[in-house]
Amino acid sequence: MGNIGYTTLTRQAGLMREMQSVAHNIANAATTGFRREGLIFAEHVAAVEGPGGSLSMATANVRNTDLTQAPLTQTGGRFDFAIEGEGFFLLETPQGERLTRAGSFTPSAEGELVSPDGYRLLDAGGAPVFVPPDSANVALSADGTLSADGRALTQIGLYLPAEPTAMTRAAGTMFDPGGATDPALNATLVQGFVEQSNVDPVAEIARMIEVQHAYEMGQGFLDREDERIRNVIRTLGTS
């Protein structure tokens, strides 16, 4: 196979990963706090012997997360919180601290607010958020101050990764900050709401069709290249 064939193969591999990314987005279009993911294609040029002098390869290994604000849905739940603006909630997990925009929490048996997976929500000081089990009226102010029966309990922390490019997607709607975190200053909290996924299903389906079309064109080229090589081998074998 010539250089053109190898270049096409690398492009096909990238398109396959992009198709998987699109399918993952569509599957999570209704997942609370989910962030759309895309791929960044790049060109790698290597020096080779021969008339061309170089070989260009396409790579698509860098995942890009869309952090655009998604619409808020009213639930009325007193432990459902939504972020307006930048920032993430901070969760304590066995793998370390994780960031998330999914703000649906429930009190544990000990009175600590936990995510649906059972991970504890942390406050602005990095401590678990505790709500007395006998609290009748729980209120959340825009700055994150959580009160129970008129008494301030704590301030829910909103965080950003200290190095944005170090943040990587973890399981579900969680992100690994990749190091230290800083307070998010340009954000407010809303009680009784959750943030939806920022995936646009129509746009993703259109993107899927486009990627599939590009993949089919590349596959057609590889099939023709394979047939050309076979014809050359047959011709040389009979000469």
Compose a concise summary of this entry:
The chain is an alpha+beta fold and about 240 residues long. The chain is about 25% helix and about 35% strand. The chain folds into two domains: about 5-65 and about 200-239, no CATH class; about 70-195, no CATH class.
Which characteristics define this entry?
5-stranded antiparallel sheet, 239 residues, 33% strand, 3-stranded antiparallel sheet, 2 domains, alpha+beta
Distance N terminus to C terminus? 21 Å
Number of helices: 2
* Biggest beta sheet summary: 5 strands, antiparallel
Number of E-state strands: 18
**In one word, what is the shape?**
elongated
Number of structural units classed as domains:
2
Order of helices and strands: HEEEEEEEEEEEEEEEEEEH
Helix coverage percent of residues? 25-40%
Sequence stretches where pLDDT stays below 50 over 5 or more residues: none
Mean pLDDT over the full residue set: 87
Fraction of residues in β-strands: 25-35%
The neighbouring-strand order within the major sheet is: 9-5-6-15-14
Structure class: alpha+beta
Question: What does this molecule look like?
Answer:
The chain has helices at residues 3-27, 201-238, and strands at residues 37-47, 54-65, 72-74, 81-85, 89-93, 96-100, 106-107, 113-114, 120-121, 138-140, 145-148, 151-155, 159-161, 168-169, 174-176, 181-183, 187-191, 193-195. The chain is α+β, with helices and mostly antiparallel strands and 239 residues long. It folds into two domains: 3-67 and 200-238, no CATH class; 72-195, no CATH class. β7 and β8 form a beta hairpin. α1 (3-27) runs antiparallel to α2 (201-238).
